[in-house]
Amino acid sequence: MFHTNLKKARKERHITLEQLSKISGVSVGYLCHLEQGTRKNPSIDVMEKIAKALEKDITELFFSKK
Fold first, then answer.
1. Helix 17-24 vs helix 44-53: angle between axes, to the nearest 10 degrees?
2. Cα 18–chain centre separation
3. Radius of gyration of the chain (CA)
4. Cα–Cα distance between 22 and 37 in angstroms, integer?
5. What Cα–Cα distance (Å) separates residue 36 from each residue in 32, 40?
6. pLDDT (tens digit, 9 = 90+) per residue, 2-61?
7. CB–CB of 32/17 below 8 Å?
8. Domains observed in the chain
9. pLDDT at residue 66 in the model
10. What residues have CB less than 8 Å from 64, skipping those under 6 apart?
11. Which of 29, 22, 13 is nearest to 5 (CA)?
């Protein structure tokens, strides 16, 4: 699931959810739900914003099973 990739990528960048929210424009609450796996279908727009903020490829971040 992408939630583990998302949290790992954020931790690798040493940024908090609040910082990621400011960079990406996605709310802290929504990011928290994505990382916890309680929200499973973010829009392509949201995925692009998060991937760009984390300097990751959208495919690697959201569709990789690593």
1. 110
2. 12
3. 10
4. 21
5. 6, 9
6. 888 999 999 999 999 999 999 999 999 999 999 999 998 999 999 999 999 999 999 989
7. yes
8. 2-62 (1.10.260.40)
9. 61
10. 2, 5
11. 13
